[in-house]
Amino acid sequence: MLYFKNDYNFKKEVDIMESSKKNLPIGVFDSGLGGISVLRNLHQLMPAEDFIFFGDSKNAPYGTRPTEEVKELSFTIVKSFIKKQVKAIVIACNTATSAAIDDIRARYPQLPVIGLEPAVKPAVERKKNSQILIMATPLTLREAKFTALMEKYKKDATLVPLPAPLLVEFVERGELDSAAVHSYLETLLRQYKGKTDAIVLGCTHFPFVEDAIKDVIGQPEPFIIDGGPGAARELQRELQNKDILRSGDHQGQVTFFNSKPGKAEIELSERLFNSSKK
């Protein structure tokens, strides 16, 4: 015969389980090191959370790869996060978001999965009928998600897609403000000087070269925005809604992993994470 002790507190057991889930880490990944710009936003907004960052620098850049290959690489990383028992995942890569987020969410419907997309909406809403450059990787710019974004806002502003794949490679080398970076940006931005109201940084690598972009574009300085802060706020809302947001005096820890062997990528990851905020 089955029986239950009257003093058994099922609610207490559920509360303990939920409390334990709150203490699980959050997985964050990128094609390389660019997603560390998003990681900084996440850590700043939610300092009590533990984060695991994985940079797939061995396979960077994703932005010039076929969609199916990016999807396969993304799923491999997600599966490794699942084994580490993360409570949420942030795809800190516009390219991987475009290629894989719908399939990842369908495979893991109970897991909060936050992605990145170019911050076109706030740029458009800031000033109607403006000219907006959207700097991103070639794959991001040719995916259906970006096409839909362009279609949605094309009547409100002049949207100019601008592929900038080499910027990813500069950041992967830790080269953020060199003469070569300035020369490359000069080639890209020369025709838009004085004609651009806003620049959307549609790749998570690009915030690390924002100062160089400002130097090259000159005055009047356009409004520059990226999707990192918005993604951080979205994750915070998701965790709050599921009651798994960690709070209190715990000092969140950040752990870095990279697909490239050796210490160099980890050391560069830590340097980028600790570099000055914009």
Structural notes for this entry:
- The chain has two domains: 12-116 and 229-274, Rossmann fold; 120-227, Rossmann fold (3-Layer(aba) Sandwich), CATH 3.40.50.1860.
- Helices cover 46% and strands 15% of the residues.
- The protein has helices at residues 10-22, 36-45, 67-83, 94-107, 120-126, 138-142, 144-153, 165-172, 179-189, 210-217, 228-241, 264-274; strands at 26-30, 51-55, 88-91, 113-114, 131-136, 158-163, 198-201, 223-226, 254-258.
- It has a five-stranded parallel β-sheet with strand order 4-3-1-2-9, sandwiched between helices. The protein has a four-stranded parallel β-sheet with strand order 6-5-7-8.
- Residues 1-17 have low confidence and may be disordered.
- Provides the (R)-glutamate required for cell wall biosynthesis.
Give a quick rundown of the structure.
The chain has 278 residues and is of the alpha/beta class. 46% of the residues lie in helices and 15% in strands.
